[in-house]
Write the structure tokens for this entry.
Amino acid sequence: MKIAVIQGPNLNMLGMREKHIYGSMTLDQIHAQLKGSADQNGIELEFFQSNLEGEIIDRIQECMGTVHGILINPAAYTHTSIAIADALKAVSLPTVEVHISNIYHREEFRQKSITASASTGVVTGFGPFGYHMGLIALTQIISEMFNAQQQQASAVPVEEENTTE
Ligand code: DQA
């Protein structure tokens, strides 16, 4: 199973940035931990961070047909970007949105997520551990989808009743 981890603007500053809100772990440390647990479960992660909206959209578009799901923290674009929400809807992959802080417990302008409308679910407020929670949720969703597809493929077609006289 392959999952894209997409990180939005200023998340490259984690560890230095507003530590009282985001903690002291750097993005590299978060990714190393996440890779550790992904490796144990045979999951391949592709990491990407950008401060540019267009680059994030390009990366989301590249996910079509190349990964099974997306774990994304759109950061400030969460609250503004219809374009990122549209890109997520366009690729139509299982997607979990993660926020380190609890966006519903912060300034009013952060309490609305535009991108959440394009996500399967949202994890918010559990610090960097939220990425692990998101990954667990995402792998579960993808496995369920895969199992449902397998079942459908192996289902024996019901013989149509012969109605000829
Ligand atoms: C954030 C919350 C956003 O409001 C903020 O702009 C971020 C990080 C979070 O992870 O808590 O950059 O997405």
